Amino acid sequence: MKKTHKKSLSGFTFIEVLIAITIFVIAAVIAVDLTRGSVRATIDLKEVTTATWLLKKTITELESKVESEGFDKACIKKIEGKFDAPNEKYTWITNCHQIDFKLSQTAAALLGDKADVDIKAADKENQIEKMVLNISSEYISNSMREIHAEVHWIQGKKTKRMVDVTTHVARYDQPLKIPGFGP
Length: 183
Prior knowledge:
The protein is α+β, with helices and mostly antiparallel strands. It has four helices and four strands.
């Protein structure tokens, strides 16, 4: 009797190797793409964080200047500039303007019901309310400023980006002007 030996083949076929290489290449491409996206996101976040820090610094400096120098000297309608190195890619714009408060006579009507008051007394009271509202409106307008600051930069090669903030500053050391009583 003759024995036939079947030779046991061990190893991979060519097709199996090609499939394994293809899977590896696809996984490597995905990993590289994810890493590239992560690096870009980190760079973007760093730029936004820097711009936000510069914005906070700019608005704080302007608020301090308004506080120490007053509205007349520190509150300039529009100023633009560029930050020094290492932040030369960032520019800034600040705006400061008076807020025009106009308290209406309608607000005075909400203060009370005048149905039972005679016409002469109501007219005199109406004039007093109107004068108080006008004086109050003028005082609030003279005591408040709106400050707006923006920081701009170019992200990547051509994407324009911006962060901005608006705040209000009140200085209640302004003179109260009452007609007939002087400043």
